[in-house]
Amino acid sequence: MLKLDLRRVDDEHLLVERAIERDAEAFGELYDMHVVRIYRHIYYLVNSISEAEDLTAQTFLQAWEVMDRYEDRGVPFASWLLRIAHNLAISYLRSRREGNQLHDGLMDHDSFRNPEKVTERQADGERVKQAILQLGHEQRQVIILRFVEDLEYREVAEIVGKSVAAVRVIQHRALCTLRKMMKAESVSAKG
Amino acid sequence: MAKANIVQALADCLETMRQGLDLNVALERYPEYSAQLKALMEVASLIRPLAEDVEPSPAMRESIWARLLELQDEPAPSFFHAGGEAPEAH
What we know:
Chain A is mostly helical. Chain A has 9 helices and no strands. Chain A has helices at residues 2-20, 24-46, 49-65, 77-95, 102-108, 122-134, 137-148, 153-160, 164-190. Chain A is elongated. Chain B folds into 2 domains: 6-53, no CATH class; 56-90, no CATH class. Chain B has 5 helices and no strands.
């Protein structure tokens, strides 16, 4: 297992080096390795499939354009991509009023759900998902990076441009907010 | 040693959960926050499976790739693969 992981890291390192030298094929492989993660991250920020597709494409385009600025200083390539994605998504969100497209996102999200993955936890999962989509950008970002992307505090801090201590505080606030939202939703469903 | 606040206690418990270790052992370290921590950990445990819920299909990955090619405004030689095909999904 460790051997496989090391090989992957090694392969990625070589691909990144080749992409910096403008090797488009290597960049295509990097796209293939990271597109799911980048798309998912953006989707949870913008809550729209079409915008998530577009912003994912823009993320990779921008990455390609500035590949020569990437330096391997212990920050994984995925974190570098996520930072680009974060900046693009935040710019996009600032350019429109939050909530305008919430309805679109809620309408179309079922179209890409894999029916095989539907379980008895679906209802809770759906509730928490909708609650996450109502969080502010900062809290949403930290929650997705920590729990969906499973990143370390240090990596999250790097991406969102905050200290590790600040990320922990945001994480706490976000979980408290989610709990309150879910509790309120549960009470309202019963009433 | 200074007493941990709830933010630190939560970070510790979440890291324990992330590593798949016994959560009860972590919770016992913070009896004063036990109820709050349990409630927050429950919410956190619901979030993790969402990673599997939002995943672009191979068709969508190709669509993103196609969009990427559209966005490319550089002149020839063409961007990435000739013919604009998406790389194979692994």
